[in-house]
Amino acid sequence: MPILEAIDVHGGYGGMNILNGVDMAIEADEVGVIVGPNGAGKSTMLKAVFGLLTITGGEIRLRGEPITNLSPHKLVEMGMGFVPQEKNIFPSLSVEENLEMGAFLKPATASRLKQQIFEFFPPLKEKRRQPAGELSGGQRQMVAMGRALMNEPSVLLLDEPTAGLSPLYMNEIFERVKAIAASGVGVLMVEQNAKQALRIAHRGFVLAAGQNRFTDTGEALLNDPQVARSFLGG
Amino acid sequence: MNELIYFFNYVVVAGSVTGCIYAMGAVGVTLIYSILRFAHFAHADMMTLGTFVVLLLTMLFPHAGDALGLPTAIVMLPIGMVFTSLVAVGIDRAFYQPLRAHKVKPIVMVIASLGVTLMLQGLIRLFAGTGAQSLYVDARKEIFRIDIPGVTRPIILTEPQIILFVVTIVAVVGLHLFLTRARLGKAMRAMSDNPDLARASGINTQLIVTLTWVIAGGLATIAGTLLSLDVAFKPDLSFFLLLPIFAAAIVGGVGHPLGAIAGGFLVGFAETLAVFNWSVLLRPIRDSLPSWIELPNNLAIVGTEYKIVVPFFILVAVLIWRPTGIFKGKVI
């Protein structure tokens, strides 16, 4: 059974439909990557999964349980983590406090998990007392992912985690994403850097106009000449 | 030396008293702004309301404090704080929360809080009348005179002033520890930083909102009661407090609790220094002044009756030259 499953999802903002039937499924140790042109509904789909917009048709399931239109708060309790693309840290709180906020619902495990996150993202350990807003882009992304991981999610949603990062940091983040999935967390992420992202993807979803255009393993999509021509820039 | 004691009594003590009151009010304004993103104009009336409740309780049980050796109003203060906090949460549920649910603009919230101001003022006057009343019912205010050897003038401190200093220090230290150490306090700062992410982290934002009103209501009651204990309870108290506490919050940098405290003392001391009669300090050198300078009897920058001009001036100056305040807060 897939840990996260979306079946024929329709939805949008204020009566305007952006998603016109999206299907997705990832297993508990897989990375799923959503790629596609601008305006295809990639980020919208991620927000729909996290309950940030109204789903008008179809169903989303977490561990087989229907979670369609549940509130983000409820979904966090059920073990879903979400890292928005922008404003994904608490800038005036220290790195350590940012992480603690991620474990708000599980204060008892906070200090143990904090140590694990520091081992997982070593740069954060030395900056633990610094306000997160003073960190570099890549380190902020680490804080943002670390905060979401503090809740020990079974599914992690990442909205363009490498946007605006240097290639060095981009590879670093992708390595971390792979490791997170390997530890048994289903990762679903939206990416602009489609080629690099598909390289680490177990599942790839190419969206266009709010619908699945291609759905396959990351490798198969990379090698598909049709996908390459229309979506990966040749 | 007499002149220095005079300066101490009329500037250091008086300025600290005013500073403490403004600081506690401004902290409430700043906390409400950082969590709910609107300027809460009814804050000074929450101070009056809290004080009025304490006054009622003191009138009902005038001798409750005798056994503890404290003014009865101080013994009643915790009850007044709880009551005012509950009223503040109730007002939020009844008036502000429905507006938040409709996602109105901040200015609508500000106007709603003006409505709450008028409502509270009307209610307080309905029950308290319009005259001033002492919070010492059936008791007398203790005044301490500390004699300094070799000086004729004593340092004068009243009982409420000493209590005010102690309570302010405890409240400020307590609030600081809460915001930096406690899980809920950190969550409060997190929500002020990024409310959407706070929600996405599983922070119960409704609980944080309630907590904000409880803290703001409690501090407002402390400040109002201790001020009225030192002077007298006036139903129009809020009128003289609203502008200075907003000036203090803005000077300190809106959204910074520590800035609000600094701003409170800055405005308090500026006010006190502006109405201070400087001629007293110049008296010892009067004889050595050239004959064409005649020392007037009153040499204050503004008259006491125009005291309110000072926070106004500070407010305008800060808004023009440094709208983010000392601690780089948000712009209202």
UniProtKB/TrEMBL annotation, chain A:
- Endpoints of the signal sequence: none
Molecular-function GO term, any one: ATP binding
**InterPro entries for the chain:** AAA+_ATPase, ABC_transporter-like_ATP-bd, ABC_transporter-like_CS, BCAA_Transport_ATP-bd_LivF, P-loop_NTPase
* Ranges where the ABC transporter domain occurs: 4-234
* Superkingdom of origin organism: Bacteria
- Pfam families with a match to the protein in the record: ABC_tran (PF00005)
Claim: Nucleotide-binding is one of the keywords in the record = yes
CDD domains per record: ABC_TM1139_LivF_branched (cd03224)
Q: Which UniProt keywords apply?
A: Amino-acid transport, ATP-binding, Nucleotide-binding, Transport
Q: Which PROSITE patterns match?
A: ABC_TRANSPORTER_1, ABC_TRANSPORTER_2
- Which family does the UniProt entry place this protein in? Belongs to the ABC transporter superfamily.
What is the name of this protein? ABC transporter ATP-binding protein
Its source organism is Salinicola rhizosphaerae
From TrEMBL, chain B:
User: Could you list the residue ranges that cross the membrane?
Assistant: 6-34, 46-64, 70-95, 107-128, 162-179, 207-231, 237-254, 261-280, 300-321
Keywords attached to this Swiss-Prot or TrEMBL record, sorted alphabetically, are: Amino-acid transport, Cell inner membrane, Cell membrane, Membrane, Transmembrane, Transmembrane helix, Transport
Membrane association type = Multi-pass membrane protein
UniProt-listed InterPro entries: ABC_transp_permease (IPR001851), BCAA_transport_permease (IPR052157)
Coiled-coil boundaries: none
Which locations, inside or outside the cell, does it occupy?
Cell inner membrane
- Which PANTHER family does this one have? BRANCHED-CHAIN AMINO ACID TRANSPORT SYSTEM PERMEASE PROTEIN LIVH, HIGH-AFFINITY BRANCHED-CHAIN AMINO ACID TRANSPORT SYSTEM PERMEASE PROTEIN LIVH
Please report which protein family the annotation says this sequence is part of: Belongs to the binding-protein-dependent transport system permease family. LivHM subfamily.
Identification of the protein by name: Branched-chain amino acid ABC transporter permease
Query: What is the organism field in this record?
Result: Salinicola rhizosphaerae
